[in-house]
Design brief:
191 residues; mainly beta; five-stranded antiparallel beta sheet; four-stranded antiparallel beta sheet; 19 strands
């Protein structure tokens, strides 16, 4: 929502997310003050607010996950309850990259984070009951090659990998560390 000031300029005053459980429960949450507090956007003299890259997800409990790229090259993950109170937050540093999160069948969120310094991926679970981001496992990787995480079943994560000339769907057992190329796109004739 915007309002007009005395000079005739429009300024944003609200940023609402509207979500529903598709069973009749619809709620509106205003994240404007949260965005300003965390530096996700800044109010400047210009007409429009300056946004960093922001994505949203919801977990199975209806909590809102805000994923934000930072100006210094890092990232931030915030998990908010339905009243926009922060449940969890995790900030990455320059040299760390956050891949797309994935929801487990139980509705929990998993975040793959690549570290240039450690040359590895680490998968973190947003554990709302313990109020921590808990590490599920670590995988060595010379470069960030996970393009998308598709899901998790049991202890196995499924993702699209583009490592060297190989491009395809991989399964990774987080307990044993075993990785298996399930479908290599070029071999299957997929460009």
């Amino acid at each position: 929502d915007y309002e007009q000031d005395q000079e005739g300029m429009y300024r944003q005053i609200l940023d609402r997310i509207i979500y529903t459980d598709f069973a009749g429960d619809t709620q509106t949450v205003d994240l404007w003050d949260f965005y300003l507090e965390k530096g996700i956007l800044r109010e400047e003299i210009e007409v429009l607010p300056l946004w960093q890259h922001v994505n949203w997800r919801c977990d199975g409990e209806g909590n809102i996950c805000v994923l934000s790229s930072k100006e210094d090259g890092g990232f931030a993950v915030y998990l908010l309850d339905k009243s926009a109170s922060v449940l969890l937050e995790q900030e990455g540093t320059p040299g760390q990259y956050l891949a797309d999160s994935v929801r487990t069948p139980d509705g929990e969120l998993i975040f793959p984070i690549y570290s240039d310094g450690g040359k590895s991926y680490e998968l973190f679970l947003a554990d709302t009951s313990e109020k921590v981001f808990r590490s599920l496992g670590r995988m060595e990787a010379e470069k960030p090659y996970i393009l998308q995480v598709y899901g998790m079943q049991g202890n196995v994560i499924y993702y699209r990998s583009q490592e060297g000339i190989e491009d395809g769907i991989v399964s990774w057992d987080i307990e044993t560390g075993r990785k298996v190329m399930l479908l290599e796109f070029r071999t299957a004739g997929i460009d």
